[in-house]
C-alpha cells in the first residue's frame, strides 16, 4: 500500500510540474484578468460582468504581448515584453517550488535554494515558450524571390 502511495505521489508531482511548465507564460495574463475582475467586483459590478471583463483583458494582454514580441525588431521592446511575461512566471515558479520544499521539510537554506532554482527553471521554460511563438518571417531567399514581382506592381 505504501508503494502505491509513493508511486501515485510521484506521478501527481510530475503532472503538477508539467502543468506549471505549460502554463508558465500565461502568468501575466492571468494576473491581469484576476486583477481586473476583482477591481470590477469591488467597484460594485456583477460577478458575470467581472468574469467577462477579466477574460477579455487577459486574452487582450496575451495577444498584444505575443504580437508585440514577435513583430518588434527592437531588442529593448522585446526585452521589456519578455520581462513583463517572465517575472510573474518566475514568481509563480518560486512559490510552487517553495511549497513543494515545505512538504519535504529541509533546512531553511535548502528551501530557499529549491525555491530560487524553481523560479529559474520556470523562467527558462517560459522564455522558451515565448520564443517559440514568434511569427514566421520570410527568409532572405523568399524575399529575393518576391522582389521582381514587387517591382512590377507600380
How does this model look, in words?
The protein has 154 residues and is mainly α. It has one domain (24-134). Helices cover 84% and strands 0% of the residues. It is built from 6 helices and no strands. It has helices at 2-22, 27-42, 47-71, 75-104, 108-132, 140-152. Helix 2 (27-42) crosses helix 4 (75-104). The mean pLDDT is 83.
Question: What would you call the structural class?
Answer: mainly alpha
The structural domain count equals 1
Q: Given the structure, what is the number of helices?
A: 6
The whole-number mean of residue pLDDT values reads 83
Helix content: over 70%
* Shape summary: globular
Through-space gap between termini:
78 Å
Largest sheet: none
Number of strands: 0
- In N-to-C order, the SSE pattern is HHHHHH
Features:
154 residues; mainly alpha; 6 helices; 84% helix; globular
Concise synopsis of the structure shown:
The chain is mainly alpha-helical.
Secondary-structure map:
Blueprint: H1 2-22, H2 27-42, H3 47-71, H4 75-104, H5 108-132, H6 140-152
Amino acid at each position: 500500500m505504501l508503494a502505491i502511495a509513493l508511486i501515485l505521489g510521484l506521478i501527481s508531482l510530475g503532472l503538477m510540474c508539467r502543468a506549471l511548465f505549460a502554463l508558465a507564460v500565461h502568468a501575466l495574463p492571468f494576473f491581469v484578468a484576476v486583477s481586473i475582475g476583482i477591481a470590477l467586483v469591488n467597484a460594485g459590478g456583477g460577478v458575470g460582468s467581472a468574469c467577462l471583463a477579466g477574460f477579455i483583458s487577459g486574452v487582450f494582454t496575451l495577444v498584444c504581448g505575443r504580437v508585440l514580441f514577435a513583430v518588434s525588431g527592437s531588442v529593448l521592446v522585446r526585452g521589456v515584453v519578455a520581462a513583463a511575461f517572465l517575472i510573474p512566471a518566475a514568481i509563480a515558479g518560486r512559490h510552487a517550488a517553495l511549497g513543494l520544499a515545505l512538504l519535504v521539510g529541509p533546512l531553511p537554506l535548502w528551501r530557499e535554494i529549491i525555491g530560487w532554482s524553481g523560479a529559474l527553471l520556470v523562467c527558462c521554460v517560459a522564455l522558451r515558450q515565448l520564443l517559440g511563438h514568434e511569427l514566421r518571417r520570410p527568409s532572405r531567399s523568399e524575399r529575393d524571390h518576391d522582389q521582381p514581382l514587387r517591382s512590377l506592381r507600380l
